[in-house]
Every structure is written in structure tokens, then in C-alpha cells.
């Protein structure tokens, strides 16, 4: 397991917290534009900006930590941080292990990226990041699933011939396709999951309520939609 990295001390706010002095915001730091590490070595992206605003509105002092995707839920449950804010789609399977706040994005279309638009998606070898809704979808089809720990490795697998295509969030794939003429979208979009929300331990009901209220307030005043447009995440609310 990758050692947890403290990437920044996020907010210096005055708050009276019943559950913790500092709320640790767990993210992957490897899935732009949702979250990534910038040139200063700090967590950046849509979820960094959103998370800081949610903490401010909820009156919470927060800091950011990063963790590998494949252990991000177990490390939340074991107490290594207090939330997951990492482009995590809300699914029934995950909801059996952790709770979710209100969604802060609409369901994002998933798409296939390949070296050719006529690649065999039904019977070919398809790459996906492990423990994602895309990996689960591929496993339910006739295609052969190959999983990788990071999203970058799924793209490399297509380029080096390990996979015929990669299935991932279209928001993540679109900039890659735009910057690389050898990679093209194949097939149509696939709608998976119930939008993205913050993962919270099932016991932290007060924390879930605080963040859900802040998310709902941002939906109501239009500031969440403004962030979605700024970071080109997808459909607005």
C-alpha cells in the first residue's frame, strides 16, 4: 500500500467539531480533471476546489491526503482519512460498505478509447482501472477484462498492444483523445453509476449530513454548476 501523502493543509477555519479536529479529505490525485497533483506537489482540480468550498460552507477545518485507488475504500473504513472525494461513482455495491453524500456530479458517460474506431469491443481485450464501474461493466460482457492500478496504465496498455481499447469516464478520456491523434473514440457512450458523491464511513452520520447540506446549497445557488462548467466535468444540475 502506498504510504499516505499529506499534500496540503487545506483550510484554516474556526469550527467546533464534535467528531474530529481536522477532517482528512482522501483523494487519488491521479484522475484529471477531477483530481491531480500540480507542479507544486499539491492536490488540484475540480474536487480540490469543490472540497475546499464544501469545508468552508460546513464550517470544517480540512486537509488533503492522497491514496492509491485500489485501497481507497478500505483505508476510509480503517480510519486513515474521513472522506473520499475522488471521482467515485455512487453504486449499490459500494453503498453496502460506505455511505455517500448527495451527488455533486451527474452520471458521467463512459467511453471506449482505442487506436482504431472499428476495434472489436464485444469480444476484444478491454482495459479498465481496477475497482471501477467500468471494470465491473466489462466483466459483465463478452469482452476480456484487463485491470490496471492507475488510469495512465490503461492508456499505455492500448498503446503497447496489451488491450484493444480502454473504458473510462469520457471526461477523463476526452482531453487525452484531443491531444493524441493516434487515439480515437470507438462505439457509443455508456451510462454507468448514479453520479459522483463523497464517500463517508457509515458511522459518520453527522459528517455526511454536513457535507450533503453544503452540496445541496451549492446546487441551489448555482455555484456547483459554475465549477462543473469551469472544469468541463459534464452535465450541469
Please describe what this structure looks like:
By secondary structure, the chain is of the alpha/beta class. It folds into two domains: 5-107 and 194-230, 3-Layer(aba) Sandwich (D-Maltodextrin-Binding Protein, domain 2); 109-191, D-Maltodextrin-Binding Protein, domain 2. 31% of the residues lie in helices and 27% in strands. The chain contains eight helices and 14 strands. It has helices at 46-58, 72-77, 92-95, 133-139, 151-159, 170-179, 205-221, 223-230; strands at residues 5-8, 23-27, 30-31, 35-37, 43-44, 62-66, 83-84, 99-105, 109-114, 125-129, 144-148, 165-169, 184-191, 196-200. It has a six-stranded mixed β-sheet with strand order 1-6-2-7-14-8. A hairpin with a 3-residue loop joins strand 3 and strand 4. The longest helix is centred in the C-terminal third of the chain and has 17 residues, at 205-221.
Summarize the structure.
By secondary structure, this protein is an alpha/beta fold. The protein has helices at residues 46-58, 72-77, 92-95, 133-139, 151-159, 170-179, 205-221, 223-230; strands spanning 5-8, 23-27, 30-31, 35-37, 43-44, 62-66, 83-84, 99-105, 109-114, 125-129, 144-148, 165-169, 184-191, 196-200. Strands 1-6-2-7-14-8 form a 6-stranded mixed sheet.
The overall pLDDT, averaged over residues, is 92
Distance between the termini: 36 Å
The name of the CATH superfamily of the largest domain reads Periplasmic binding protein-like II
- The CATH architecture name of the largest domain reads 3-Layer(aba) Sandwich
Regarding CATH, which class of the largest domain?
Alpha Beta
Helix/strand order: EEEEEHEHEHEEEHEHEHEEHH
- What's the Cα radius of gyration? 18 Å
* Main sheet overview: 6 strands, mixed
Backbone shape? globular
Strand fraction: 25-35%
CATH topology of the largest domain: D-Maltodextrin-Binding Protein, domain 2
